[in-house]
Structures are given as structure tokens and as C-alpha cells.
Design a protein that fits this description.
The structure holds 2 protein chains of 2 kinds. Chain A is mainly α. Chain A contains 14 helices and 2 strands.
Chain lengths: 336, 440
């Protein structure tokens, strides 16, 4: 019984949240990694791109709700998502036309692109504040729980509760679908193959007649899809606020680098490495220890390695360890 | 137009802006010398920060996105240097905290030492883990009990260990030293890798430093803020009570209250100007020294510099530490000016990326340009809001009060700042990438 309680405690507050968060980070990191491998710079505006997609989704969701459209048990935001992706894609492709294309033509060094992305970050951050203000917003409707804590307790007769929220399952399902589609697209379609060729060797790709503008445009559209989905899933799961989304930049980058910048598979693994370490380090292990240890050894502290406020320190520590010992990431990334 | 003519023109324009702000109540100008001096003081501090970033970016091409962290460390330096020590806290648990920190440092040092001595292998890996885990629990045991004891003491007033009780001006170089220490750790890890990695690593360390200030209440009181930091200039109340000061103010035709606030702000402005000029002259000297020429040679062609036998990573580490120290110094100045440390106010868009806009707009590589950028962008940052409100008024002219369009536009005007700064950065990068005062 004690053992079961311990398992439930771990599942409820560690495995489920970390998996959900990991899937959200993985989608974000995939976007960062794609931009890095095709456009060859670290996009500092990525957090704000996620925020922009989310803000648009919130707007469309409110509109749909006012029309009386709903998806029943699922959040209405899911129905708004494709529209929001389209709008975000228009914004990103527009940004590329207005800003990045100029530097690409000049063959500017990567750091200039990064600077430009700082400018884009500021503008987007201002834009989302114009559109949605700075307050926290939740836009989750539909059924909140698949498994309710109380129902689980009654059903199992255990002391520990287990709850599973709709958004958590939704995150996993949507993330798996998108990743599966992305890998199919990159590996099987002509456009996907030309993207990989462009990423591997730009000159050779140009030589074989691949249209660079088309590759770049497709990349931005895919990035819009990944970023918006990541942002919306995160917002459904937790809440939207411009500052939290800006701060997602660090764990997202950490995930992409840990996996190996430019490597899509690495980005996914990196997302889960970062999320699990973050949750494990800030998890209150006392909840598990009271079931597993004999009473005499019962701890009097919380057995928390670090308080939750330091979760960024975890992303950072992982980043530093990887940079020190394996600068190309767990999976071979593009460069040192 | 020659470079020096341009500089004189731009700085003259800047001076005019401050004079108009002080003298005329018109459009977005307030007509208050007090406000003008408030903007000027922060502009001086910003200019020092911009000089620090210009050392790193303009001289060496290093992309540091952790300025906020170094600025915050400077702020912390003011607290730990100038506050009087809280004796009760020290006897309750202060020494245990220090012991805990020493244990933590010893653990890390021991691990590094052990890894250097032992050959690679399973034994080394196992020992690394053993020392780290054992050291961590030992550190937490000692440290946590100390922290609990300290934070329990009169939490509404103190709850922290206080500082060394030294004069507040000593805190400024201490802020530089703290920032330099942090920069050394980052530089050791991230320099020598590709440039984006330094950016991401510094972004991370800045978040962590601010998280520490927000949560370690024994040190910085976290969300409760540290108020009443000592000042290098007299207090307004004391001035108003001094008969001599009141008489002097009257002879200038000022009432004592206004005169005392102006006196204090001018005092700060003079101190800050002295610092700014000193750092400007030193950077300028460094720039024209063989060391500065070597830096620029490395920046322009790293491979060639390496071929000439220059130790690129080492030089980068030097200038990274120097630049961060200047930012820490400025951070200490800012906290002194505020008279309080508010950990929650450190925001990367304001303290990291805004400084970047200053350097790029002013002219990367040109020290005078950075100072100009610091002044102009800070002025704009303050004035964009009234400008936005004015614009909103013009746009909604004729609309009935409370019309939803008018309400929406007025709301949006409040968020003009970031938007404008982004546009300024993008326009300068595109059309005038060398900035207002280009490097010559």
C-alpha cells in the first residue's frame, strides 16, 4: 500500500507535469532548432513568437465563444489554433521579408541576425502588450479533468490522489501528432528533403536548383505552427502572461542546445531532459519518503533540493554541463 | 561633417532637450528642473552601463545578454557593503550561513581539484558524484539552519544579515568586483565556444542572479526590499533645517524645499559625471593602447590574430570581465541613487536589451557614441509614454469621451515603450548600422 501511494505521489506531481511541460518545451525547441539549421541564427524572438500565437488564439477563442461555438469537452482554443497559426505565419513571413531577408542577401554574420531578432523581440513584445495587456489570462474551457483527485481516491482507496487534466492529455496528443507530421514532412516530402539539404550544405543545395526563398518561407510557416502550438498548449496548461512567455526562452534554448542545435530529434529529447530535471530538482521528495522510509528515518525537512523559484538555475546548470563536456549536444548538433 | 562636429552637434541637441525639459512646460516637457535632473541622473548611469557593454561588444565583439545580472550584483554590493551589520542575526546564524557557503565552495573546488589529479575513468566519475552529493547535503544542512535562524529575527524590519557598515561610495567598486567575479565564472565556461552560446549562457546567469536576490531573504530581503540605504549626499530634511542652507537658497530666490531637492540631485549628478568621465577617459586610453588595438584586431579577424600568436580566449576573458565590472559599478550607482534595492524591478528588457539599443544606436565601438546612446535612448524611454499619450489624444480628437476606440488607443499608448525601442533598433541596424557616431 505504501509503495503504491509513493508511486501515485510521484506520478501525480512529477511524471505527469514533467511530461506535459517537456512536450511543450520540445515543440518550442524544435522551432528554435529549425531556425538555427535553416537560417543559421539563434532567434531571441522565439518566446515572443509563442506569446503572439497564444494571444491571437485567445482573441479568436473569445470570438468563437461569443458566437456560441464550442468543442464540447475540448477547449475551444483547439479550434482557434489553426487560424492563429495562419496569422502567426503571416507575421513571421512578413518579418522575414521586412527584416531578415536584407541581411541574408548581404550574407551578414550570424550575430547581426541575432541583433535583428532582438529588435523583433522588442516589437513583438510591444505588440502582444497592445493586444492583450500584461495580466495573466486563462482561456481553458471544456472539461477540466479526465481523472479527478477525489474520484481516484474513492476508486483506489489510497491516501494519495491522482488527477489528470484534459490539457495534459491534449498536450501529449497534439505534440505527438505534430512531431510525427514534422518528421514525415522532413524525411519523405520533396520540400522537406530540400530543407534538409539546405541545412546540410547551402551552396550545394543552391547548386542543385533548390529555391532558397521557398525553403526559408516554408521554415517560417512551420516555425509559426510549432511556436503557436507550444504557446497555446502551455497557456492552456498553465496561464498566459507576456513575462512568463519571455522567460520560456531560456529553457527552450537550453533544450535545443542540450539536444544539439540544429538536430530535431535532439530538440525533443532536450525538452524532456530539461523538464524532468527542472521538476525533479524542485520536487518535494518528502511526499515519497514518508511512504518508503521506515518511520524512524522520517525526514523533518521537505527534502526539496532547490526551491521552485530556482527552476531557471536547473536549465542553466544543464546548459553549462553540456557546454563544458559536450558542446555539440547529446545528439550531434551542427557546430561548436 | 567631421566626426567631432557631429559629436558636438548631437551632444548640444541632448543638452537642449534637458534644458527645455527643465524650463518650459509645453507639449511633452514638464517644465520642472527636478524632473529634468531625475532623467539626467538615470541617463548618466545608463551611459556608464553602455560604456561597459561597448567594451565587450564594440572592442571585442562579445555578445553579452546578462547585463541585468551584473547590474543587480552591483545593487547587492550596496546592501552588503554599506548597511550596518545586524548583530543579532550574525550571532543567531550569520556565521553558519558563511560556513555553509564555504562548504559549498570547497565542494566545488574539491571536485575540480580531484578531477584534475585523477585520470579519466570509472573511479573519477564515481568520486565526482560522491563528493558533489555529499557536499551538497552537508552544505544544505549547515546553510539552511543558519538561514532559518537569521530570517526569523524581526522579519518585518530586518531578517537579513545586513552589511559591513562601510561608506556607500566604497560599494561602487565592490559592485564592480562582484560583477567581475560572476563574469569570470561565465567567461571560463562560455567563451571560446560559438558566439550565440555566450549570449544564452549570460541570459541564464542573469536570471539566476535575480532569482537569488528575490529569494535569499537573509541577504537581500527578497520581495520585502531593502530600504533606507545610506546616501553619499545629505538628506533633504537636514538641509531644510540648516539655517545657512535656507539663507543661501533665499538669496537665490528659491524656497528651501525646492532648493534642497535640487541640491541633492545635483550632488548625485556631479558624482555620476565624475565616474562617467573617469571611465570614458580610461576606456579611451585603453582603446588607443597596444592592448586596445590588439582587441580590435582580434574582433576584425580572429584567425589572423591567432596566427600572430595572440591568445584570443584569454583576451576575450579579460575584456568580458572588465566590461561586466563597469556594469556592476553602474548597478551600484543606480541602487545608491534609488536608496533601495527592489529585486522584483530587475527586468531583462529594461536592464539588458535596452542597454543594447543604447550601444547600437550610439555607435558600437565608439565610446562617445555609447554615452550619447545612453542619454538619448534613456530620454526616449522616459518620454515615449507622454509622447504616446499625446499621440493618442491627437488620434482620438473629436471622438466622444469613453468611445471604445478612444479607450483602446489610450490603453495601447501605455505599452508604446518596447514597441518604439524595437523599431528604433531595427531601423538603426538596417539603415545606419554603424550608429550615430560611427567608430573611426
Amino acid at each position: 500500500m505504501d509503495f503504491l501511494n509513493a508511486v501515485v505521489a510521484i506520478t501525480n506531481l512529477l511524471i505527469i507535469p514533467a511530461t506535459t511541460y517537456g512536450a511543450q518545451l520540445a515543440l518550442g525547441a524544435l522551432g528554435v532548432t529549425l531556425i538555427y539549421s535553416i537560417l543559421r541564427f539563434s532567434n531571441f524572438a522565439h518566446g515572443d513568437t509563442m506569446a503572439f500565437g497564444t494571444v491571437v488564439t485567445i482573441g479568436i477563442t473569445t470570438l468563437f465563444q461569443s458566437w456560441g461555438i464550442s468543442l464540447g469537452p475540448l477547449p475551444t482554443a483547439l479550434f482557434a489554433l489553426p487560424f492563429a497559426i495562419a496569422i502567426t505565419a503571416v507575421l513571421l513571413v512578413g518579418t522575414d521579408f521586412a527584416i531578415y531577408r536584407f541581411y541574408r542577401k548581404k550574407r551578414a554574420v550570424p550575430i547581426i541576425f541575432v541583433m535583428a531578432s532582438l529588435g523583433v523581440m522588442f516589437v513583438m513584445n510591444g505588440l502582444i502588450r497592445f493586444m492583450a495587456g500584461v495580466k495573466d489570462q486563462t482561456f481553458d474551457d471544456g472539461t477540466r479533468f479526465i481523472i479527478k483527485a477525489r474520484d481516484f481516491k474513492e476508486w483506489s482507496g489510497l491516501d494519495e490522489a491522482l488527477s489528470l487534466r484534459t490539457t495534459q492529455v491534449l498536450t501529449l496528443v497534439v505534440a505527438i501528432a505534430i512531431v510525427a507530421w514534422l518528421f514525415w514532412f522532413l524525411n519523405k516530402t520533396r520540400t522537406g528533403k530540400s530543407m534538409r539539404a539546405f541545412s546540410d550544405n547551402e551552396d550545394l543545395a543552391l547548386l542543385s536548383g533548390i529555391n532558397p526563398n521557398r525553403v526559408v518561407m516554408v521554415t517560417w510557416v512551420i516555425v509559426a505552427m510549432l511556436a503557436t502550438t507550444a504557446g497555446v498548449l502551455y497557456g492552456l496548461d498553465k496561464a498566459y502572461s507576456p513575462y512568463t512567455y519571455f522567460q520560456l526562452l531560456l529553457p527552450t534554448f537550453a533544450a535545443a542546445i542540450v539536444g544539439g542545435l540544429g538536430n530535431p530529434l535532439g530538440a525533443i529529447v532536450g525538452g524532456f531532459v530539461v523538464s524532468f530535471s527542472e521538476v525533479m530538482v524542485t520536487y518535494v521528495w518528502k511526499k515519497v519518503a514518508i511512504y518508503l522510509l521506515p518511520e524512524a528515518l522520517e525526514p523533518n525537512g521537505l527534502l526539496q533540493l532547490m526551491s521552485t523559484e530556482y527552476k531557471f538555475a536547473v536549465s542553466f546548470a544543464i546548459l553549462v554541463v553540456v557546454l563544458l563536456f559536450k558542446p555539440t549536444g547529446l545528439f550531434k548538433g551542427q557546430s561548436v | 561633417m567631421t566626426q567631432s562636429m557631429r559629436a558636438i552637434l548631437f551632444f548640444g541637441f541632448m543638452a537642449a532637450l534637458f534644458i527645455i525639459e527643465g524650463s518650459t512646460n509645453f507639449w511633452i516637457f514638464s517644465g520642472s528642473w527636478n524632473t529634468s535632473l531625475v532623467i539626467l541622473n538615470m541617463a548618466l548611469v545608463s551611459a556608464v552601463m553602455a560604456l561597459g557593454v561597448n567594451l565587450q561588444w564594440g572592442y571585442a565583439g562579445l555578445f553579452n545578454t546578462g547585463i541585468m545580472g551584473f547590474v543587480a550584483l552591483g545593487g547587492l554590493a550596496v546592501v552588503v557593503t554599506s548597511l550596518p551589520p545586524v548583530t543579532e542575526s550574525w550571532s543567531a546564524g550569520g556565521y553558519r550561513i558563511i560556513l555553509g557557503l564555504i562548504l559549498g565552495a570547497l565542494t566545488i573546488a574539491g571536485t575540480i581539484l580531484m578531477r584534475m589529479k585523477l585520470p579519466q575513468g570509472r573511479l573519477r566519475g564515481a568520486l565526482t558524484l560522491a563528493i558533489l552529493i555529499g557536499g551538497f547535503f552537508l552544505y544544505r544542512a549547515v546553510f539552511d539552519s543558519g538561514v532559518q535562524a537569521v530570517e526569523a529575527i524581526d522579519p518585518s524590519v530586518t531578517g537579513n544579515i545586513g552589511g559591513l557598515g562601510l561608506p556607500v561610495l566604497v560599494a561602487w567598486p565592490v559592485g564592480g568586483l562582484l560583477a567581475a567575479g560572476a563574469a569570470w565564472i561565465i567567461g571560463k565556461t562560455a567563451l571560446g565556444l560559438r558566439s550565440d552560446y555566450l549570449a544564452i549562457a549570460t541570459l541564464g546567469i542573469a536570471e539566476i542572479i535575480v532569482a537569488i536576490l528575490k529569494n535569499e531573504e537573509w541577504l537581500s530581503r527578497g520581495a520585502k526590499n531593502v530600504n533606507g540605504l545610506p546616501r553619499p549626499v545629505p538628506y533633504e530634511v537636514d538641509l531644510q533645517q540648516s539655517a545657512e542652507f535656507v539663507a543661501n537658497a533665499a538669496s537665490l530666490g528659491l524656497d528651501p524645499v525646492t532648493a534642497s531637492t535640487l541640491y541633492v540631485k545635483i550632488g548625485y549628478a556631479l558624482l555620476f559625471t565624475a565616474v562617467l568621465v573617469t571611465i570614458l577617459v580610461l576606456s579611451q586610453l585603453a582603446r588607443h593602447s597596444p592592448w586596445g588595438r590588439m582587441m580590435r584586431a582580434i574582433r576584425d579577424n580572429e584567425t589572423a590574430a591567432r596566427a600572430m600568436g595572440k591568445n584570443v580566449t584569454r583576451r576575450h576573458l579579460e575584456i568580458f570581465i572588465l566590461g561586466s565590472a563597469v556594469c556592476g559599478f553602474a548597478g551600484a550607482m543606480m541602487t545608491t541613487l534609488d536608496g533601495q534595492l527592489t529585486p522584483a524591478s530587475y527586468h531583462p528588457l529594461r536592464f539588458t536589451f535596452l542597454i543594447w539599443v543604447m550601444v547600437i544606436v550610439g555607435g558600437s565601438g565608439n565610446n562617445l557614441g555609447s554615452v550619447l546612446g545612453g542619454f538619448l535612448i534613456w530620454w526616449l524611454w522616459v518620454k515615449v509614454e507622454p509622447l504616446g499619450q499625446w499621440l493618442a489624444q491627437v488620434l482620438t480628437y473629436g471622438l466622444p469621451e469613453g468611445h471604445w476606440v478612444a479607450v483602446r488607443i489610450t490603453e495601447a499608448a501605455a505599452h508604446m515603450r518596447l514597441f518604439t525601442m524595437g523599431l528604433v533598433l531595427l531601423f538603426v541596424l538596417r539603415f545606419n548600422p554603424r550608429g550615430m557616431l560611427p567608430e573611426n
